[in-house]
Amino acid sequence: MAFDLDMIKAVYADMAEKIEAARKVVNKPLTLSEKILYSHLHSDQKLEAFKRGKSYVDFAPDRVAMQDATAQMALLQFMQAGKKKVAVPSTVHCDHLIMAKKGAVEDLRNSLSASGEVFNFLESVSNKYGIGFWKPGAGIIHQVVLENYAFPGGMMIGTDSHTVNAGGLGMVAIGVGGADAVDVMAGMPWELKFPKLIGVKLTGKLSGWTAPKDVILKVAGILTVKGGTGAIVEYFGEGAKSMSCTGKGTICNMGAEIGATTSTFGYDESMDRYLRATARAEVADLANEIKEHLTGDDEVYANPEKYFDQVIEINLSELEPHINGPFTPDRATPVSQMRKEAEANGWPMHVEWGLIGSCTNSSYEDLTRAVSIAKQAVDKKLKPKSDFGINPGSEQIRFTVERDGILDVFDKLGARVFTNACGPCIGQWDRAGADKKEKNTIIHSFNRNFSKRADGNPNTHAFVTSPEMVAAVAISGDLGFNPLTDTLTNEDGEQVKLDPPSGFELPEKGFDVEDNGYQEPAKDGSSVEVKVAPDSKRLQLLTPFEPWDGKNITGMKLLIKAKGKCTTDHISMAGPWLRFRGHLDNIADNTLTGAVNYFNDATDKVKNQLTGEYGPVPSTQRDYKAKGIPTIVVGDHNYGEGSSREHAAMQPRHLGVKVILVKSFARIHETNLKKQGMLGLTFANESDYDKIQEDDTFDFLDLDKFAEDKPLTMRINHADGSSEEIKLNHTYNEAQIGWYRAGSALNLIAAKEKN
């Protein structure tokens, strides 16, 4: 079944005309990314040759997708916008609030009990406002979107950084905060700085142990976690065409780990096959009619250096399987070098768990390639040295692999099949013994491996690789095991070698499912009542943030000077805190508790300048707020890296923090700060970071003249009576300064709706 077919027809109907108009204005051949961007300009946006990395542009995305943890805050905001129905097709997917512990059936039942209030809220608000609802257990948002909603040449946004997964079907799909989603659902323009373009030319063909995952693991090693910031990564070449659609999705999915705006591939036969296999032949037929517009122009791919800001070339025939980590997804190590690297760094060599699945690698092809290794273990009498966990990507995937006997093989290895949900990938893993905080190693096919990410244990060394490599390494129980060259001892004492994996791009018998978990909204939701109990610990109706008074902010105290990596996990942890994602005041009690204090190398321990005592970050900030004292947070490079969660912006805003001042921002987080009426600023001179002392206070000298392209000046007042002035840069345009003046972007939307 093809959802929203009329919308797709409308997008395709005038795509050729819009692309031709853009080509005349730009006066050069176009990349695929440019074709999609220019064909999705908002009706109020003037067509011009936009400057990459500089021009702010208004777009009109085709659809919105939200997962349950972020949908709560997005929809609480949408309820304030005064709209009766969403303006574009939108969906909610319940996948984050399901704890993995014992197995799918019991875990789902327990999660329905623990988070029933939230699921009921999301179901009712979806029903009221015309939003498609995917029930708990239906699957992981990005796999479900790929199977049902993604289409070549489309543009979508989603309240999860891995929305970019849909690039595997030729979309420009971008992770955003909930306030951005509200804009689009309310029918407003969606603003994005026109991205730079990185081209990745793929030659050769994957074979043996090398998988699509290894492409992005290699790219992450090249670009690092911030190398793709502000850019779309466009993959092309014969190597790209040789990969499956879901393999392309894997590569795009983990593009979030290099900070990329999104990643995408041109339309080809693998996408046609996937659309038809997932009951969307009508979409494939429509795409084939305009397929020359659903990929980059020939001249672009023939001379990529002329049309991309950066070009990377990877020969798939020579690419070696990689294992990335620990603690960062861009530490890339070829499998042949892992033993040497691990021993040199003192990483635990015994692998305790192998985890397969997540939104990155839970396709039919992924599971069949992994099970081909598992079957060899059974046939060759190899007893796994690690525990196994499996997270199918959707109920359709789970039902199909169960029908085809794949789960039976994993069952013979003692694998634990968890719910079709995020589970350990998002920290929803009740792992036995994790509270002991012992040093250990796990390996998984997920996308992120930050400290504490999977199980809450800061000493868990998590490594990212392909599903087939997870299977091989987990069977060996040895982080240094190289299945390309090494042998294992079986139960009979014999030395046996694993053969390279094999799998199926698509199921030979087709996909099947009894209940995919989808619930269509009411045609008219005006009579649907959305209830939020006043005393709820999980949900809280929002109160609009106060507008700026137009004056300079003075007398600011330093809340924390964060040292080194400060991701959204450090600013607003996931795991057990997910249960408070719909209650801003409660979840604010985890604000910046994971950030390392520059002055004592401790987490959640900052100096209260009013008392001179050290205490938790949230309670210290609440004390400042209660006394009406403004505060500032100072950070390092790529501040806010990781998830799209806008809670990392809303929580400091709610607690009274006025400014986030850093060396550089991750894209989504900077936007989220702007949307919530916060000041997100960067040091004009990065070395000024070193001037910030623990007892400093801060005064703006010219914030009252806040204007586009005009740096700000701040005075630092030191405890010894001395002071110095520093320059601060910002990227606010006039519209974003309007958000700041109003208190938030949502305040402006609500005001316009009332008028």
Key attributes of the depicted protein:
lyase; seven-stranded mixed barrel; Aconitase/IPM_isomerase; Aconitase, domain 3; 755 residues; Aconitase, domain 4; 3 domains; alpha/beta; Aconitate hydratase A; 32% helix; 27 helices
Question: Mind explaining what this structure looks like?
Answer:
- There is one protein chain.
- With 755 residues, this protein is an alpha/beta fold.
- The protein folds into three domains: 5-42 and 52-317, Aconitase, domain 3 (2-Layer Sandwich), CATH 3.30.499.10; 345-429 and 438-482, Aconitase, domain 3, CATH 3.30.499; 556-754, Alpha-Beta Barrel (Aconitase, domain 4).
- The chain has 27 helices and 30 strands.
- The protein has a seven-stranded mixed beta barrel. A six-stranded mixed β-sheet has the order 6-5-2-3-4-21, with helices on both faces.
- Helix 25 (667-675) links the parallel strand 26 (657-662) and strand 27.
- The longest helix has 16 residues, at 364-379.
> At the third CATH level, what is the topology name of the largest domain?
Aconitase, domain 3
The percent range for helix content is 25-40%
Shape: globular
- Termini separation: 40 Å
